[in-house]
Backbone:
């Protein structure tokens, strides 16, 4: 069962419909607010307003070296780089107390974009129109600080969440992160860690067979490791594995693994049907939800306790319809 407690997620404030953009507008994202919002508590952040800039205000841009750009106003070239870096360091530190399970950034924002933000040549304002097109190699100043401070925390941009695979991966990760944090809130118990790992085995396998094996070894030798070090190592392995994208090939491998649990239960026709549907998925003729629905049916029909506890089969609420499109 998923915990009924909502997941805490950081988010660029304008995506919730808050009128905090430079022109006094917003960029409300209906899916984030109305659909995902049923399952999460958002912690809004607007770096520019929280830093002290007014609404409305002159728009900002990144200029100079994409690896360490300056943050300046579009027309007057007023420099807010130091102010934004100091705010970002302070705000990121404060967000440690929020126990966030992820963050959704605003695409293209010079403060909050997580990738492909425009970076202009650092030239005098009077020459700005002659400086040529910007590069798309930038990262927003606040987003860079946040992602450096929380390197393994699930992060995405609202624009990238339009991609079905990226959306499913992000939502899967924040639900795993919620379950992990819930386990950490309890007094340390090796039994709890083993149970957590056991229930996430197939899900981890769908992202990285290498991490699946190394994490199995880590848990097998858990008694030889000091608890805090053990938890830190496991968390690093877990979140690193889940950052790797699940693919059709990886999912097919897991589905075949699941099918093996029914070799003594299914009739020849049932085995043939299951293999045909897995092959249809592998050929990208049907979405992942199709073979998973049949697998879940057999889990219930043949009372497979081990599989019934696998989060891979039900990683997030079905109402989100995430696996209908991957």
Residues:
């Amino acid at each position: 069962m998923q915990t009924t407690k909502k997941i805490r997620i950081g988010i660029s404030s304008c995506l919730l419909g808050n009128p905090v953009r430079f022109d006094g507008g917003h960029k409300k994202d209906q899916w984030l607010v109305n659909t995902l919002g049923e399952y999460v508590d958002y912690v809004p952040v607007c770096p520019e307003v929280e830093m002290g800039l007014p609404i409305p205000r002159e728009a900002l841009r990144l200029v100079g070296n994409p690896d360490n750009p300056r943050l300046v106003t579009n027309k007057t070239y007023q420099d807010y780089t130091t102010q934004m870096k100091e705010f970002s360091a302070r705000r990121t530190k404060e967000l440690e107390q929020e126990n966030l399970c992820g963050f959704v950034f605003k695409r293209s924002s010079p403060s909050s974009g997580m990738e492909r933000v425009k970076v202009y040549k650092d030239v005098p304002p009077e020459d700005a129109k002659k400086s040529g097109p910007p590069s798309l190699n930038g990262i927003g100043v606040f987003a860079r600080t946040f992602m450096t401070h929380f390197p393994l925390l699930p992060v995405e941009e609202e624009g990238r969440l339009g991609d079905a695979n990226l959306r499913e991966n992000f939502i899967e990760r924040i639900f795993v992160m919620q379950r992990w944090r819930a386990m950490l809130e309890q007094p340390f118990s090796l039994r709890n860690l083993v149970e957590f790992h056991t229930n996430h085995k197939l899900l981890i396998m769908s992202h990285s067979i290498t991490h699946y094996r190394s994490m199995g070894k880590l848990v097998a030798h858990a008694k030889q490791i000091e608890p805090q070090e053990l938890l830190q190592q496991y968390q690093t392995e877990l979140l690193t594995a889940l950052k790797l994208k699940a693919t059709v090939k990886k999912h097919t491998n897991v589905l075949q693994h699941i099918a093996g649990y029914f070799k003594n239960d299914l009739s020849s026709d049932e085995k043939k049907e299951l293999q045909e549907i897995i092959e249809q998925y592998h050929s990208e003729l049907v979405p992942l939800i199709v073979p998973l629905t049949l697998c879940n049916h057999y889990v219930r029909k043949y009372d497979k306790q081990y599989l019934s506890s696998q989060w891979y089969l039900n990683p997030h609420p079905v109402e989100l319809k995430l696996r209908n499109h991957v």
Notes: The first strand starts at residue 7 and ends at 12. The mean pLDDT is 95. The chain has three domains: 7-162, 187-243, 248-324.
